[in-house]
Design goal:
The chain is of the alpha+beta class and 361 residues long. The protein folds into two domains: 143 residues, no CATH class; 180 residues, no CATH class. It contains five helices and 16 strands. The strands form three sheets. Strands 10-11-12-13-16-15-14 form a seven-stranded antiparallel sheet, with helices on one face. A five-stranded antiparallel sheet has the order 3-2-4-5-8, with no helix packed on it. A four-stranded antiparallel sheet has the order 1-9-6-7, with no helix packed on it. The radius of gyration is 24 Å and the shape is elongated.
């Protein structure tokens, strides 16, 4: 094959690859971070809409006020949705926000795909329905590079009971009402038994095993994509293992808890050395932090702490008798089994968060 023919075939293959990628994710519909935009919906069939992005502008402001009154027109045109996809403050930390306001009389549902930095493919995320004149908000505590809207459709108003509209953040708990505290505790018990069994085994604890497990329960990969380490007070790493970028998966127990499971593994042979679990307040819940839930939070976290202590003790034996650091701001609980499995549980005193670390000497 001569040189010109090779160049021709390479060009054809590249064109096919670009075309396939463009068909999968329509570039004209992809919205990058720091963008203010307007979408026009065109009635199509079966309550569905075709749409096009009719305006987009660079939006470099940091959103500080959750009311966001000045982001949109006071009255959005009746066939339009206005939106802002940018960074802002939520819960006292920098977050990615998608805020929408609709002018349509219908309740609008849609699918949304997100693209994380350094990830090649878009993935679907949960969304909340949009109501006329009511700002909706999607919130993510990790970086997102771009989004793509898919399949707008109207939902008959009679399917919804009227309620007090506040900012709606994430419809996870409405769409996954079965994933409650009882479900989460069963899943955690099963998962922890598996982790301890793998660590006790003389064979290697392969990262792929846990990725397969997370995929089997449809966990959401929320890995940061860069290296972060554990302090020596948590994991001494006496053998000086070289670690890769930790892999993290999201958990939620409606409507109180959101958590992460993190896997710390050796860079070269992908062997897990530490597994950590953490539980925080589920600020993304569609229920929001309403007065009833906010009132119960402290009790729920105390109950969760007691449950974790019980489950770990059943597997590793009674906690060690340790001296608490009075100025640490937390209560520490530690275990060490006869086979060398270590567990370290933090319960913070001033805010609702629990962290558990498991590793073997």
């Amino acid at each position: 094959m001569n040189y010109k023919m090779k160049i021709f075939l390479s060009t054809v293959l590249l064109s096919i690859s670009i075309l396939a990628s463009a068909q999968k994710n329509d570039l004209s519909r992809i919205i990058s971070i720091n963008t203010k935009f307007e979408i026009e919906l065109i009635p199509f069939e079966n309550n569905k809409f075709q749409y096009k992005i009719v305006e987009r502008k660079v939006f470099n402001k940091f959103i500080k006020d959750k009311t966001t009154d000045d982001l949109f027109d006071s009255i959005v045109p009746d066939n339009k949705i206005q939106g802002v996809f940018a960074y802002g403050d939520f819960g006292g930390r920098k977050s990615v926000l998608l805020i929408l306001k609709s002018g349509l009389n219908d309740v609008i549902d849609y699918y949304l795909q997100i693209k994380l930095p350094k990830k090649r493919k878009f993935k679907k995320t949960s969304t909340v329905e949009i109501y006329k004149g009511i700002r909706s908000m999607e919130y993510w505590p990790y970086d997102i590079e771009s989004i793509e809207f898919i399949d707008f459709k109207s939902i008959p108003n009679e399917q919804f009971e009227p309620f007090d509209f506040e900012i709606k953040i994430d419809s996870t708990c409405i769409k996954n009402s079965d994933k409650n505290i009882e479900f989460g505790e069963r899943e955690f018990s099963t998962h922890l038994k598996s982790v301890i069994s793998e660590l006790n085994d003389n064979k290697n604890f392969e990262l792929e095993k846990m990725i397969e497990y997370e995929n089997s329960i449809n966990s959401e990969d929320v890995s940061l994509g860069h290296y972060w380490s554990l302090g020596e007070g948590i994991y001494p790493n006496e053998k000086e293992f070289k670690f890769g970028n930790p892999i993290s998966f999201r958990r939620f127990e409606c409507p109180y808890f959101e958590g992460r499971t993190n896997y710390f593994y050796t860079k070269n042979d992908k062997q897990i050395k530490v597994v950590s679990f953490n539980w925080e307040t589920f600020k993304e819940s569609n229920f929001g932090i309403n007065p009833a839930i906010k009132k119960d939070l402290k009790e729920k976290f105390n109950n969760k702490y007691d449950f974790i202590v019980k489950v770990v003790s059943e597997l590793l034996g009674s906690p060690l008798n340790i001296e608490q650091e009075l100025d640490s701001g937390r209560i520490d609980t530690k275990w060490k089994s006869t086979s060398g499995i270590n567990a370290y549980l933090f319960k913070f005193k001033d805010y609702n968060e629990l962290r558990l670390y498991i590793y073997k000497d």
